[in-house]
Design a protein that fits this description.
With 200 residues, this protein is an alpha/beta fold. It is 32% helix and 9% strand.
Length: 200
């Protein structure tokens, strides 16, 4: 979810529904804009957020004991030499330099991350989520005390890449998923089977 779209402060239920279902962990990118987006969701966490030096105010409406973890593996794609440039500018520069067409999903970014680099860190996070939160809970009633739903707050390219890796697709196949700024996506499992990851 993007920061711009989450201001002014919105009710969590307008975006995420019943937040009590996400009662175990929230992963957030180390970038400030993702952390600010999480703050603006006003989720009612009992504990202070990890980047806050002290609890700003005691939340009046505590809705969750879930922990928030800053997770480097969900940081935005490292654009390297292309940081701050639009795709159109990159293509124009490459054309002037006699370089061929460019696609981030296939080519990555010089001085930054390749699709293989991104795949490696996202697979590590997905494996962690599945082993810690899903292996025991998928197929169990939502009312069980087993950990289940997890919230990620991050950035456009990396969340699209995360969704592709969730369903075991290669980034180099090209990502034809759109994730609007401020959008919410849901990843799950078909037939409540951990071996059948799906995008809802």
């Amino acid at each position: 979810m993007g920061r711009r779209e989450s201001e002014p402060q919105v009710k969590h239920s307008q975006i995420l529904g019943d937040i009590s279902l996400i009662s175990h962990l929230r992963y957030v990118s180390p970038r400030i804009r993702a952390q600010r987006t999480l703050e603006l969701l006003n989720l009612g966490c009992r504990d202070r957020l990890p980047w806050q030096k002290q609890q700003q105010t005691q939340p009046l409406d505590i809705r969750t004991d879930a922990k928030v973890q800053i997770e480097d593996d969900i940081r935005e794609w490292d654009y390297g030499d292309y940081e701050g440039l639009t795709s159109a500018t990159i293509r124009e520069q490459r054309s002037k330099n006699g370089e061929g067409p460019w696609d981030i999903w296939r080519d990555g970014c010089p001085g930054g991350e390749s699709p293989e680099d991104v795949t490696s860190r996202l697979d590590r996070l997905i494996n962690d989520i599945r082993s810690r939160f899903h292996e025991r809970s998928i197929g169990e009633p939502k009312t069980s005390d087993l950990p289940g739903d997890v919230l990620l707050v991050a950035h456009g390219h990396i969340l699209r890449a995360f969704a592709m890796r969730w369903i075991k697709r290669e980034l180099t196949e090209g990502v034809s998923l759109l994730l609007e700024a401020g959008g919410v996506g849901t990843l799950s499992y078909e037939h409540q089977n951990i071996n059948e990851p799906a995008i809802l």
